[in-house]
Predict the structure.
Amino acid sequence: MTGTPVREVPAPGPTGVVVDSPAARRGPLVLRAEELSKDFVMGRGRSRGVLNAVRGVSVDLHRRAVVALVGESGSGKSTVAKLLAGQERATGGRIELEGSAVDASHRRDFRAYKSSVQMVFQDPFSSLNPVHTVRYHLARPVRLHRSLRGRDALESALVELVEQVRLTPASQFLAKYPHELSGGQRQRVAIARALAARPSVLLADEPVSMLDVSIRLEVLGLISELRDRYDLAVLYITHDIASARYFADEALVMYAGEIVERGPAESVTQAPAHPYTQLLVSSAPDPDALGSVLRSGSSAAPRSAGSALSTVRGCRFSARCPLAEERCRNESPPLARIAHDRAAACWRVDVAAPGLVEAHGGGGVEAMTD
Amino acid sequence: MSERAEPVLEIVDLSVEYRSQTGDVRAVDHVSLSLSPGEVVGLAGESGSGKSTLAYGACRLLRPPAVITGGRVTYRGRRLEGRSVDVLDRSPDELRELRWREIAIVFQSAMNALNPVLRVRDQLLDVVEAHLTMSKNDARERVASLLDLVAIPRDRLRSYPHELSGGMRQRVMIAMALAVDPEVVIMDEPTTALDVVVQREILAQVVELKQSLGFAVLFITHDLSLLIELADRIAVMYAGRLVEVASSPAVHHGPAHPYTQGLLNSFPSLRGPRRELAGIPGSPPDLRSLPPGCPFVPRCAHSRDECAEVDMALRAVPEAADPDHVSACPFVSGRSAERGGPAHGVSEVAS
């Protein structure tokens, strides 16, 4: 780092802000999303308003790397997944797969894109069709996305699929219906279905939050193992920041449609820079917290959640932020670099995380009011 | 257990079965658990472990095909002035007086538990008017003060449930449970559907209210790490049986039963050094075909032949820091099974 201020304008560059991504060390870039945005129009007539469900989100997914997208419900993290999966059309921004831009209007190209980018959904109880067997769920994507000749080829592809998600004996599981499977087994089928298309990117939207605690780890472990075996790039969407620490290389924290902080998962969770990330980390259950509010019972007055309405000015977290000052309420802070591998969108990050910013000689935040 | 105050709710040897054509399933199997006045007891377990069935059974809220096949539930509230009530013996009318007035429940999903076509005020008024005799004006004032209690602005009284956020709806549910000053509040996964930040705000509020109003809480959740922070005592349930009961610090620092140890090793920790996570292999048991003896055997790292003969009685854990620490496993003790240690580095008492 040089001694000059490290704050940079998030010029419309490849990732909004240039930081060393720990995910990039894992493998080559596969999927790049630049400045994605998605607006929803709410209401009609006078009460018409625009909700920026996603605003200026840039994500790079690299082979063999897990990037976690962390946020509360309503933060827009699932919308990002839907944009990346091609289920929703973005209002703005662009997506590149292996270096070439993706255009949903080109049907054939788009099919190729869809087989490269596969999704695992949160709820394995509703993502599988109850009237069909496991075989049916897997045979369809195999036929659709792979040109296999003959019954034997299909059969061996199916057996391989269920075996790689550790559902054995394969022939037994292929014949089962979803109701005959436990939640963890169902989620394995959902993962196998995603792998049926031989994707390079796996978008996992809260893949374990509906599962029992004792089996979450196994499913996350399975995804890790498959990532290594097939060089998958994984986007792990979660509200559980602790699991991001263990499972992800890089963590992106979302609030009200925007990325407010990014960096290596370990440092984001251990030394959060943005006041929102700090709130998120301090809210997680902590068995070692002796002076916990859950013991003392001194509750802070509940605050309202952040609004993603386009009419909201300034930092979207400012209404809840203990550090907010005049500027925060008027100007939206850009995601700016605070360390060689970290960035945060906060005007007051020098106060919020003094150690972090000083350590890199930036001496705090430079005004970006041009 | 002698120095503790006389329990306000005492469940003794309760068994609940679900009748079905393919055979009866015992969802709760000889479970005993007590709740002292003002105490927070956490009931932890995975889905299907019987934790909700136990709680609903204790207030006789189960409907067929669930049948209480044995046991006793005794309630002793302050308002009963020394008398005790056998909950399982009560007539439906007598039960109505007991429920909500003495034992209230915060249900899991506030979205479904509130009536979508009634305003918040009318739903709260319903509860107050059904259980207390007071003038309309007093009842309205009480309802308004209930919202103050859970920090919801009074102008929300006219709102319908869909106009409130999930956190607010859950707060309304809590206000409703506290409406007529119960002595026992059963909370069934009250914050599972909520974000961590909101969850923390609500739980801090519950603790604050508990301290000012003095009710006891039976808190049901699958989140053991949350319970360690929140509860005074923790009961861990597996396949319809209690496998371990101890104070929260004892569960945290010296879990005795392999299942509890496995659960604690399944949680990624946000703080402290990264530790080796192990999880629990296999899947939760099918209650229709449990192995003889200990139901945890197929998933247990310490299983041995004798496990098939274990009677699952809760035994005092040798050398435990908490004298009331009990576990259903006679072979493994928690002495060196510290969290953060190697996943299977558990010392064993026998063998």
Observations:
- Chain B touches chain A through 50 residues (CB under 8 Å).
- Residues 9-235 of chain B form a domain with the Rossmann fold fold (CATH 3.40.50.300).
- Residues 335-351 of chain B have pLDDT under 50 and may be disordered.
- Chain B is about 25% helix and 20% strand.
